[in-house]
Design a protein that fits this description.
- The structure holds 2 protein chains of 2 kinds.
- Chain A is α/β, with parallel strands linked by helices.
- Chain A contains 6 helices and 6 strands; from the N terminus they run βααββαβαβαβα.
- Helix content of chain A is 33%, strand content 26%.
- Chain B has 6 domains: 48 residues, no CATH class; 31 residues; 154 residues, 2-Layer Sandwich (Beta-Lactamase), CATH 3.30.450; 86 residues, GMP Synthetase, Chain A, domain 3 (2-Layer Sandwich); 62 residues, Histidine-containing Protein, Chain: A (2-Layer Sandwich), CATH 3.30.1340.30; 110 residues, 60s Ribosomal Protein L30, Chain: A.
- In chain B, helix 4 packs across helix 6 and helix 15 runs antiparallel to helix 16.
- Classes of the chains: A alpha/beta, B alpha+beta.
- At the A-B interface, strand 1, strand 2 and strand 3 of A face helix 7 of B.
């Protein structure tokens, strides 16, 4: 069965692990994430009648104390950028992280998601900002790990893009 | 042909429309150009029939397959369903042919698999057997009981020097699993996730210590396990090893990784997440799955001697106790056979459990007494006795005594089948015995010609006629009177026995008297002493009679007796002045 490595990236406490938890069955403790900065999990999906195993590298949140280890990004076939709608700064972090990934692994498919749609009234990221991201060629989804909204679509779209022979729409120009 | 400039012109024509020149020309042309004409006709025929002929394809088909197969996998993809269907149809149509075809391959494979399984089972059994009696073995058995694992598995784990439990071939760049093998019965977690974590840990360690790209984490230990990581240019091998592996194993792992890189260089370089091309290296990774167990220590000579001695002592003790038990049982059987009235018909002795069956006369000795006397616990013996009348002479005599109830003065003995009675007995008993004796089993005749018979009335008369004389002033019995008194004592005894059979007893009154000389008090005392002296001789207390001493004023120095018979249930009127 085909395997693909994908990375979960985003600022601190944006909900990456919660999204993964919604998607997979846990094998290793979250403890690894705080000790070595990553925990690896797995999920099998089907894309166009082809089975695909996603190996999810859930990276520790980027903040002023800890930066994403670029070595963890190597070999990724795709990645997911997670932002917290209630914190504008996480969008800026996502922009920086996206550049970091491009530098490390080149232009590979990615999908971004603005999490915590269940707290929409508290959002600091407005529609204009989202539109700007889309204008940059990003695939931007809105979802909630808490409610399970957009989770399947998030991973499904990335899997589809990775398996697509044509240049994916979410690819960085 | 008419346009041919080189053809000579002739005007003369034949009846068929051809001139003789034409015919010559045609003949000449045929002679000169026949082979080329034939080829020309074939070419024209091919041009007219452009459809591909099977015969043509058959010439080039093998080469075509080979060329296309070298170029890509499309030919395989196209043919696979047809080959599969064809194979299924062939199996259904003639399975025997398929069986015959694959038998040469499957037979050795099955034999090898069975041989391996048997070898593994034998090794496991040998290890278990070797350790089953030692102190260490007992500790391991306790551990097996505590952990719920089979004893053989616990033995193997403790004897394990090292065992490669799992081997991962992991793509270095992506951390994706290319292939994985595990030893038998090893619990395997999710290999793909584990591969990712192994890769992440290596990268974390390398970066944390600021190591260069070519400096890698080669080994780490967790509890009983050691994880070896052998790095290659495209992929690395991770071996999960239990115990302490030898150094040369590392070289073998390195060689395997080199071979993989050499044989799969292209597949590794083009790896896009599909591990299918690496299925073929299963045997390479299996080469790394090795195990070595501690060879069992040869038992020391002292241990062997102790063990042998203990076994010998146990055997001797067992033999001795068995011999003793057998001897006791044999002795008991001998005793039982010799005992009158007991016949053993069936006996069984099995590991301290005994059984006796046979016949037993009610008058025979209790077999339990014989069993106890033989030193055997009666609770271990099951007995089943059927009653019968034994014709052993002692038992016939015993039975005759039991049934006939002879007086003590009668002796019974057996002479062949004849019961002989001697001694003295009341005539009534003698008559009854003559009637009953021959009815008893084993007695065919009865004889009593030597039996002295007396009647009760005669005895009473003779006793009551007795007079014992005393010298003046004396209570001592004269020797001359002693003889008569002894004869009287015999008669009293006979009388007492005779009446006892009819539920009666003898009342004997002893009358003592003196002459009239002397004081009355002295005479009363002397009369009493004389009666007591006679009573002492008669020893009447031993005869079961009731004696009475009476003082009588008869002016004679004598003692007389008065015997009478009374029923047993009458209250004795004992008068002792």
């Amino acid at each position: 069965m085909m395997q693909k490595k994908i990375c979960m990236l985003g600022g601190f406490a944006v909900g990456k692990t919660s999204l993964v938890r919604r998607f997979v069955t846990n094998v290793f403790s979250d403890h690894y994430q705080t000790t070595i900065g990553v925990t690896v999990e797995k999920k099998c999906v089907t894309v166009d009648n082809r089975e695909l195993t996603l190996i999810l590298w859930d990276l520790y949140g980027e903040d002023e104390f800890q930066h994403v280890r670029e070595s963890y990004l190597r070999g990724s076939s795709g990645y997911i950028l997670v932002m917290d709608g209630t914190r504008r700064a996480t969008l800026d972090t996502a922009l920086v992280l996206q550049q970091t990934v491009v530098k490390a692994v080149g232009a590979v498919p990615f999908v971004s998601i603005i999490n915590k749609s269940d707290l929409r009234s508290d959002w600091e990221i407005d529609e204009a900002a989202i539109e700007q991201l889309r204008e940059r060629g990003w695939t931007v989804l809105i979802g909630s790990a808490k409610l399970g909204q957009g989770v399947e679509e998030l991973f499904g779209r990335l899997a589809t893009q990775m398996m697509s022979p044509s240049p994916p729409p979410g690819m960085c120009p | 042909m008419s346009t041919d400039p080189h053809r000579p012109r002739h005007d003369s024509r034949t009846s068929e429309g051809l001139t003789s020149v034409d015919k010559d020309w045609a003949e000449l042309r045929t002679l000169l150009l026949a082979p080329e004409q034939t080829q020309l006709d074939e070419l024209r025929d091919r041009l007219d029939n452009r459809a591909v002929q099977p015969r043509d394809i058959s010439h080039v088909l093998p080469e075509a397959f080979a060329m296309r197969g070298e170029r890509d996998q499309q030919l395989s993809s196209v043919l696979t369903p047809y080959v599969e269907n064809g194979f299924v149809a062939a199996v259904r149509k003639s399975p025997r042919a398929i069986v015959d075809a694959i038998a040469p391959i499957m037979g050795p494979a099955i034999r090898q698999a069975i041989a391996r399984a048997l070898q593994s089972m034998t090794e496991s059994f040998n290890h278990s057997l070797d350790e089953s009696l030692s102190l260490r073995g007992l500790q391991w058995r306790l551990e097996a009981w505590r952990t719920g694992r089979p004893f053989a598995e616990v033995v193997l784990l403790h004897r394990l020097q090292y065992r490669v439990d799992q081997v991962f071939l992991i793509h270095r760049e992506t951390g994706l699993l290319l292939h994985h093998v595990a030893a038998e019965k090893v619990v395997v977690q999710d290999q793909q996730v584990l591969s990712g974590m192994l890769t992440a840990i290596q990268q974390y360690v390398r970066e944390s210590f600021g190591a260069a790209q070519d400096q890698t984490l080669n080994q780490f230990q967790v509890g009983d396990w050691t994880v070896w990581i052998e790095q290659g240019s495209q992929a690395y091998l991770a071996c999960v090893i239990r115990g302490t592996p030898p150094a040369n194993l590392r070289e073998e792992v390195h060689d395997v990784l080199d071979r993989i890189h050499a044989e799969y260089a292209e597949a590794l370089g083009e790896f896009d997440g599909d591990p299918a091309p690496f299925q073929g290296l299963h045997s390479h990774l299996e080469d790394c799955v090795q195990a070595q167990y501690e060879s069992p220590q040869p038992p020391s000579a002292l241990k062997l001697w102790i063990l042998g001695g203990a076994v010998l002592l146990a055997a001797l003790w067992w033999a001795w106790t068995s011999y003793q038990a057998h001897a006791r049982w044999s002795h008991l059987l001998t005793q039982l056979k010799a005992e009158p009235g007991l016949v053993v018909t069936n006996e069984r002795s099995r590991w301290g459990d005994y059984r006796l069956e046979g016949l037993r006369d009610p008058l025979a000795k209790d077999p339990l007494e014989l069993i106890r006397e033989a030193g055997i616990d009666p609770s271990t013996v099951t007995t089943l006795w059927a009653p019968f009348y034994a014709l052993d002479p002692p038992l016939i005599v015993t039975r005759a005594h039991s049934v006939l109830q002879p007086p003590r003065t009668v002796q019974l003995h057996l002479d062949g089948g004849t019961l002989v009675a001697t001694g003295s007995a009341p005539i009534e008993w003698a008559k009854e015995t003559r009637r009953m004796a021959t009815l008893l089993p084993g007695i065919t005749q009865y004889r009593d010609e030597d039996l002295l018979t007396v009647s009760i009335s005669d005895l009473l008369t003779r006793i009551n006629r007795t007079v014992i004389h005393f010298t003046p002033g004396s209570a001592s019995i004269d020797p001359s009177e002693q003889l008569e008194l002894n004869a009287v004592a015999v008669m009293v005894r006979d009388l007492a026995q005779a009446v006892s059979q009819s539920g009666q007893r003898v009342r004997l009154e002893i009358l003592g008297s003196t002459d009239e000389t002397g004081s009355i008090a002295l005479n009363v005392q002397l009369s009493k002493q004389r009666a007591e002296a006679v009573l002492a001789v008669l020893r009447s207390e031993h005869l079961g009679l009731v004696p009475t001493i009476t003082i009588r004023n008869a002016d004679q120095r004598i003692v007389t007796l008065h015997a009478s018979i009374e029923p047993l249930d009458q209250e004795p009127a004992i008068v002792r002045p």
